[in-house]
Amino acid sequence: MSNSINAVILGEHGGPEVLELAELPAPRPEPGQVVVQIHACALNRLDIWVRKGLPNLRLDYPHVLGSDIAGVVREVGESVDAKLVGREVVLNPGLSCGRCEQCLSGWDNLCPRYHILGESCRGGYAEQIAVPATNLVDKPACLSMVEAAAFPLTFLTAWQMLVVRGRIEPGETVLIHAAGSGVGSAGLQIAKLHGARVIALASTDAKLDKARELGADACVRSSDEDWPKQVRALPGVGRRGVDLVFEHVGESTWEHSIKLCRKGGRVVTCGASSGWDARTDLRHVFFRQIQILGSTMGSKASMFRIAQLIGEGALRPIVDRVFPLAEAAQAQRYLDRREQFGKVVLEIA
Fold first, then answer.
1. d(CA 235, CA 199)
2. Least CB-packed of 135, 232, 253, 294 within 10 Å?
């Protein structure tokens, strides 16, 4: 066994140029852990935020980014079944203690000790990683390693938003912001799987064409200034509005999301890629009894259901472009231009 691995490391916050290819000591599994030989790691906007620096985020340097990981179990630690060696897996990106009230009630994403791979602990821009065995999920056999790396964080987030928090129902109308993003393309598919009518928003006609291929019932170009009026003009929306808004853009779209939500409807948010300081007219919230629901990640249990549905062909991760590990900086620049539809993935082995 080699004593070192290749990894793209972050030694300081800054632009993509701070990412460097380097050698690190090879990980060794602690009790309850496994070492996974990483074959692919998908990028998320979280990677860019961590690279730039987040409030109250303290990292142990050198830091390794990357939350979405697919690979093969290489080594197991004490008290872990040795039969896992050689198994093809994806990793649940959320780490939790497994002992607190939240973890034991199925809400491990509310664990006080919750961490996300690549955010506050080392992630997948590397050849190997040590993780708890409880974070392993069998890779759906129908997927390549690159495809498998493209689903964990985004599908888990979208599932939590729509199924767990939003309690989506058949026949409801769902407005999906940024349908070309990883979480947006996942949300579109999950909404359709649950029998909803989906209105997809995206910035270009090319992205909207791909959204239609995924099943969007109506598409509106969000780069048009009058996009909210175009949504209102769609059959079944009008003055009533939509039942559920899938919101992850934040400041630039928030006011419109509130106004487009029907009386008694829900706005579920998992992020704020355009800015967090959004204005909320509370009159719309209390007079129209709108529910505003926060959502972050999802439970370990949900990952098994998502993987099952992907294995059955009911859902599928969308890969836009693949880069080698050494070109992680270029991959982040590409992601930051927001030109992709679906996921950008680093191929590692």
1. 11
2. 294
Quick one: pLDDT band at residue 272, thresholds 50, 70, 90?
A: confident
Phi first, then psi: give them for residue 191, nearest 5 degrees.
Answer: -65, -45
**Cα separation, 347 vs 185, whole angstroms:** 21
CATH dotted code for 4-151+317-347: 3.90.180.10
> Which pLDDT tens digit goes with each residue over 25-34?
999 999 999 9
Tens of pLDDT, residue by residue over 190-241, are: 999 999 999 999 999 999 999 999 999 999 999 999 999 999 999 999 999 9
pTM confidence score: 0.94
Q: Are 146 and 124 in contact (CB under 8 A)?
A: no
Q: Where are the domains of the chain?
A: 4-151+317-347, 155-294
Q: Which of 187, 335, 283, 173 is nearest to 238 (CA)?
A: 173
**Cα gap 244→266, rounded to integer Å:** 5
What angle, rounded to 10 degrees, do the helices at 328-336 and 45-52 form? Answer: 110
Domain 155-294 is found in CATH 3.90.180.10: yes
